[in-house]
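Q&A FORM
Asked by: J.P.
Topic: structure of BPTI/Kunitz inhibitor domain-containing protein

PROVIDED:
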Amino acid sequence: MKFLFSFLVFVLAVSAQNDICLEKIEFGNSCSTAEPSIRFHFDNSTGLCMAFGYKGCGGNKNNFDTDGTCSALCKPTSINWCPVKSEPLKKTDGTVLCKKDDDCKTNGYYKVESDYVPVCGKGRTALIVKDDGNKNMLIGKNCDSNFCPKQSKCTMGNYFATCCKKL
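REPLIED BY: S.T.
REPLY: Here is the structure written out as tokens.
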């Protein structure tokens, strides 16, 4: 009986944790007790943890200090961009590049990969930040997520936005 109770508590805890990851992005509100900062949320539509500009107070629990914490708690262990019997990853304009699983390998996958090498313009490069001891590029759902630091400019790719260093 004790084992069954422990198992039930574990299942409920994991379920509650996953519910946090399904909450929509909330930017919070400005307040005098905290500074705005770059935070991370799990975007269920892409299966990625993405940066956003947090205003300092309020919001919901899908709001993590680091990409690593967000990924550890929310990110699936494997991501298939065109999962069986589910919708392919969509571009920001709503169109889909991979109409069937086979197309994903040649079209959709490369478009997603190209977002990780953004075209920043002459003399510019993607902004790399240190997060949990790792160097990562900041990515956000779109430029409206207001996640790029002042020394950079938001650039929209095929599926998500990145920050490019200003000259």
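FOLLOW-UP: Confidence is low (pLDDT under 50) at residues 2-16.
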